[in-house]
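From the shared-data thread, chain only:
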Amino acid sequence: MAATGGLMFGYDVGVSGGVTSMNDFLKKFFPKVYRKKNETGVDSNYCKYDNQGLQLFTSSLYLAGLTATFFASYTTRRLGRRLTMLIAGCFFIVGVIFNGTAQNLGMLIAGRILLGCGVGFANQAVPLFLSEIAPTRIRGGLNILFQLNVTIGILFANLVNYGTAKIHTWGWRLSLALAGIPAFLLTFGALLVVDTPNSLIERGHHEEGRAVLRRIRGTDNVDAEFTEILQASRAAQQVKHPFRNLLQRRNRPQLVISIALQIFQQFTGINAIMFYAPVLFNTLGFESDASLYSAVITGAVNVASTVVSIYSVDRVGRRALLLEAGVQMFLSQVVISVILGIKVTDNSDELGKGWAVLVVLMVCVFVSGFAWSWGPLGWLIPSETFPLETRSAGQSVTVCTNLLFTFVIAQAFLSMLCHMKYGIFAFFSGWVLIMSVFVLFFLPETKNVPIEEMTERVWKQHWFWKRFVDDGFEDGDEKSNYGHGNGNHKVLDP
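Structure, as tokens:
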């Protein structure tokens, strides 16, 4: 139920691309784009959708989410994960009402901003909730339920767009209004679930936290885990300024990894494809129905490949999935760039059936690689590596970085497509190569390691990061009588 926050996020990602390729929507809100799209003899087939206002429709959601995540950090820590998810659901519902009934561009953007606030709160709370509620042995698979719901949301949006594109004058309204279904599911789900033991204990509800721990573990023998969480909570309570604490040397490995993963995740180019899949396929010469159909295919591949990740992440490990997918994504984008460079000229209207099928196939190869690696693991790894005293602040930085670079890509992609043409895929493939090298040397394996033992068993054992993690305090550290969230907290001598 908690993971349905991903369903709403995914629907938002998927629906915007289909709606922005519908003539009725463009005619009402972006008449210049509508005229350019339907003109013959435009300067470049790649530039039909190059419009800052149209890009703002997509990207405003992520800019709002970026701002909201800082407020979400406070509510997640002070009010709990569950209440934060409930707030997200309320933002989503109001945003859906604004979008579905929009009469002008102002209402449309206002609705997207409200949805963005919901994304900021949901993306802050849901991955933390899932990581904290899960037993260690299946934490990876359970956390990836969030990403699975994101991919299902994208597929659902693509299917809806495929149907509503045939309903003239108001089909786009139906596409935007049906976001109310995942919005309601998250709100209803947040009312049903219990808060995490970590959150309850952190807020002083010790007996309630112990009761929840017994309930979710299915046993009364939870004393060891309860004591570990309690000690981590006491360390966390000594930290009055978690964001300042996050900048300390001993927290640098988790901070650098979480920020790098979010930047790299966006520079794979996945959101460029998912936001604008129908627009992209239209640009490449597909007919309108064919472009939406191709987007549905890529959405289905996305869902199926995420299921693969659920079953493999706790067996194969995080690093192996990221490295294998890096090779797969790099090669597929190079092939797409070469095909488009040879076959799509500035004024071409068609790619040719055989080449079009190959492009869709390569897009599917790329999407599958992302879906079982960078998609889910970009959220999983940061949520499981921060100690409790900086976990909420760390997740806030993670979400903020993700939404900032999602905004950058969403706002820039159609302009980049216009100016870089087929070279945009070569650009993204270069980033895939860089991030694969980063994983090879700097990302430690975290599978089957309890959250509160990450410092001792992961960071202190890594060839590079161990120099940042020690048992001493630096000048300016917020001192406490406890350790650093590693599960082995000992009282220090005065």
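Residues 332 and 365 are 6 Å apart (CA to CA).
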